[in-house]
Amino acid sequence: MIATVLGLLVVYGRRWRAPESGLSDSAAFARPGGARGVGPMTENPEVARIEALLEAWAEAVRRHDVPAILAHHEPDMLMFDLPPPLQCRGIEAYEQTWDLLFRYHRPGTAFDFRELAVTAGAEVAFAAAIMWCGPDASSDPADKDGFLFRLTVGLRKTGGEWRIAHEHHSVPAAA
Fold this sequence. Notes:
Blueprint: H1 2-6, E1 9-11, E2 14-16, H2 45-63, H3 66-70, E3 73-80, E4 88-89, H4 91-104, E5 110-120, E6 124-134, E7 147-158, E8 161-170
Parallel strand pairs: 3-8
Antiparallel strand pairs: 1-2, 1-5, 3-4, 5-6, 6-7, 7-8
């Protein structure tokens, strides 16, 4: 299960390590309302730093603060996004992608983490998330009430600071 593979699952803002006792992975998940799952809380300070960086990025998106959106990205970053182009390389190309979203997304509109799983080593890390965007943040009338999307972020530590090197935004393919 994901908690075993990642070693750490963050749901509703609480971090839990998968239990070593052999209980099912679902027993390790934090629950709405703050109820505790089984397993000790993880105290990896790198995970907490990355969570704070990602939340600051999402808050910058909600404010439409482009300099703050770009602040923790590598100059040579790579992104795979929901709309074309297939990929964008470099911070300048990444900056231009925000124009499309901001045509529809209004400042203060949701751009929120619903689930976040972070795995951090000494120099590289990745995060996988389910996010909520909207309402009225898309040109698709079906998304008028908002939509869920997947986010995967690859980070590397440069000069002692975590930097985003890769973003991948996606939605499930239509059947």
